[in-house]
Structure formats: structure tokens, C-alpha cells
Amino acid sequence: MSLLQNLASLDLSETTEKIIAEYIWIGGSGMDLRSKARTLSGPVSDPSQLPKWNYDGSSTGQASGDDSEVILYPRAIFRDPFRRGNNILVMCDAYTPAGDPIPTNKRFKAEKIFSQPDVAAEEPWYGIEQEYTLLQKDVKWPLGWPIGGFPGPQGPYYCAAGADKAFGREIVDSHYKACLYAGINISGINGEVMPGQWEFQVGPAVGISAGDELWVARYILERITEAADVVLTFDPKPIQGDWNGAGAHTNYSTKSMRSDGGIDVIIKAIEKLRLRHKEHIAAYGEGNERRLTGHHETADINNFSWGVANRGASIRIGRDTEKAGKGYFEDRRPASNMDPYVVTSMIAETTITWKP
């Protein structure tokens, strides 16, 4: 193993100017992350300098076998925390050879929304709280839980320390540092209410970059759990019963909301979200009905609500925002398996450009 580790950590800059670019894309399920690597002649800092590439879409559920070629368009570059040096991770989206976005390319529509002048002028900021659960590989049961059994009730585990309360911290801390190294604006981590469940936060990020950064942060976490021989799940309710689910609470503000008198803009935006509640729920992740029950710090999926400091509401306004009369609000409805391109752009569209 030491030989493999030494070879994997070789510093290419000692012998060549060539670098390795890991192209990342979203597969056919909408949640599976795929990647492959290619050699480039030298360091690259702008996605426009990168070549397009292709892959077999029939093997990812995104094309038929008789016309399987899908084209990758490089969109965002991050430093590679695994290979390091000048090597890079490249977030891509996918198109047909004719240049049309394939059906699972949600980034294309999101970028169109964020490019609208009214939206761009508002400089939408996002902070996404990504919850996830770590599972024992062979039994698909939460890390730290007795096989076939349950730990003690919830209460001692949230933000806790100790071998009987915090399971998987090395993975979590490794991911935190790897994201910072990559250039992702990861703003924090914490242990969650259910043991074996954790959260990281990405943001503030502006517009389309929020989706790019969250997807690459997910990819890095997948790679780290792979190395740790642990299974990662974004299921919004991995364990039925009296256990918290997993969400992706999305904090949001616009330039108008952050300005004096912004609280009035926030309340008007929340009213728009109320009017489109069903449309948003339909786009906020698969299996969310198992999580949004009105229990375990959630609102019922069928009823829209909002409040100040209320974690049982659909939308929460923080005390600091209420006191300042400006700031941001939190949409607590998105599931942990939501697509950040869909959720961020939909919130912007509803609150900025949509006319009831």
C-alpha cells in the first residue's frame, strides 16, 4: 500500500508541465456523479481554455446505444485535492453532438435564468446546508449503529463529541479541508441530530456558482467516502421512525433584501413562494414526502408556512434579519437529494421575475 500511496502522490511538476484534468458530470439518475480524467499540455485557469470531451451516454442512462455520444462542456474549474499540484477538477454539463442540452442537463436552464438582466442585477446569494448520512458498506446501515439494531434516542448526537456520539468525523474533516483546498466556499460543518448524519454548508455563493460548488463538494465527498470504504447517501429519510431526515436548507437573499427596508422585499418574496408551493415541492427532491411530515423540524409537505426563528416552518426568517430589517431567509423545504441548479434558479425566478 505504501508504494501505491507514494505513486498516487507523485508531484508531476518535477518532471513535466502536463497536468491531469478530472472531468465531472451528473449521470442519468440526476444524483449519480461520474468522472474521467485526461492529460493536458499545461496548467489551465479558465474553463474556456479546456477542450470539450465526450462519453458513452448509453452507459449512464442518458443516450441510446445506437447514438450514444454525449458531449461535455467544461463550466467551472477547481483545484484537485487528490492529485494536487496544478491538477484540476472540472465541472461540466452535457449536450448532444448537435449542441442541444440533454434532458438531465439542469444547469443549462439555470444559467439562462441567472443571466436574465433583472436576476443578475439582484446578485442572488445562496448558502446551502447539505445534510447527508454515512452508511456501513456491507449492511447499508448508519455508521456507528449496531448492526440490525438502534442507538439510543436522538438528543445527545447533534454537534456532539465522543466515540459513542460522533461517527465519521475523520471523513467530515477531510472533506472540509479538501473543499477549502479545491476553492469551494465551504463555510462550515456540524454533526446532525441523527447519529451518523452530518452537514456541510456551501456559500455564500452567487448565482450559478452555488450549484457548481455544491455538486463538486458532493463529488469530493463521494471520493473520500470511497477511500474510507463507507457508503454516502443523500436519501431524505434514510431511516424510518423517530429519526430526523436529511435536507438541503437553502438560504437566500437578493441585493434588495440586503439593503435598508429589505424585510418588506423578503415578505413579498415569501408570498410569491407560497403561491407556487406545489411547483417548488415537485422540484425539491425525490422522496421528500417521507421527510416533510410536520415532525422532526419540518413543515408538512402539503401546507406552506413561514415564521421567525421557526424550524417547523417552510420558510424561516432569522432573528438577526428581523432585528436589522434586512438580510436573508431560509427555505427549509429542499431535500438532501435536490439538484442545486434547479432549486437556486427556481427560487430566483419565483421571487424576482415571476408575476403572479
UniProtKB/TrEMBL annotation:
Domain GS beta-grasp residue range list: 19-99
What EC number is given for this enzyme? 6.3.1.2
Kindly state which reaction or reactions the protein catalyses.
Answer: L-glutamate + NH4(+) + ATP = L-glutamine + ADP + phosphate + H(+)
Q: Which InterPro entries match?
A: Gln_synt_N, Gln_synt_N_sf, Gln_synth/guanido_kin_cat_dom, Gln_synth_cat_dom, Gln_synth_gly_rich_site, Gln_synth_N_conserv_site, Glutamine_Synthetase
Alphabetical keyword list: ATP-binding, Cytoplasm, Ligase, Nucleotide-binding
Start and end of every GS catalytic domain?
106-356
The cellular location(s) given in this protein's UniProt record come to:
Cytoplasm
Outline the segment boundaries, as ranges, of region: Disordered.
37-64
Q: Which Pfam family, giving just one, matches this sequence?
A: Gln-synt_C
Q: What Gene3D superfamilies does its record include? A: Glutamine synthetase, N-terminal domain, Glutamine synthetase/guanido kinase, catalytic domain
SMART domains in alphabetical order: Gln-synt_C
Q: Record's family? A: Belongs to the glutamine synthetase family.
What is the protein's name according to its record? Glutamine synthetase
